Amino acid sequence: MHVMMRQIMALFDEYQSKENAKHVMRALKESARQGFWNGSFPPIGYRTVAAEQRGAKTKKKLEIDPLHADTVRLIYRVGNRVILEPLDDDTMPWAAIDKLGDTPFIARVARAAFHAG
Per residue in 26-56, pLDDT tens? Predict the structure, then answer.
């Protein structure tokens, strides 16, 4: 009898989890549709700014970060081949995240949809 009860409870838990996921995804998509940034760290070349206040929640939008926008422009202008030297600088913000001069990093920036224009 206990096994059946645990299975029934697990079934309800699974259903509730799927319902929560559905509602969270709908809310995230709606927030993105309204132009707000749902992520934590902005992509390289952008920064987040407070756009509006909804209750206790601050909605954020992306704006171009003038400090690092030139780096992204450089990646698109010269591509992967000659970009490694100018980026070999410990002051760059991604130094702690990724190896500098790492071609996959440059390729990720070049392929990112938010840099496309």
Answer: 999 999 999 999 988 888 888 999 999 988 9
* Phi, psi of 57, rounded to the nearest 5 degrees: -95, 130
In angstroms, the CA 53 to CA 26 distance is 20
Could you tell me which residues come within 8 angstroms of residue 45 by beta carbon, excluding any fewer than 6 positions away?
64, 65, 68, 69, 71, 72, 109, 115
Place of tokens 């990112």: 112
Q: Which amino acid is located at 54 in the chain?
A: R
pTM of the predicted model as reported, rounded to 2 decimal places:
0.59
Max mean pLDDT among 16-30, 34-48, 82-96 falls in: 16-30
Tell me the C-alpha distance between 59 and 23, whole Å.
Answer: 18
CB 37, CB 114: distance < 8 Å: no
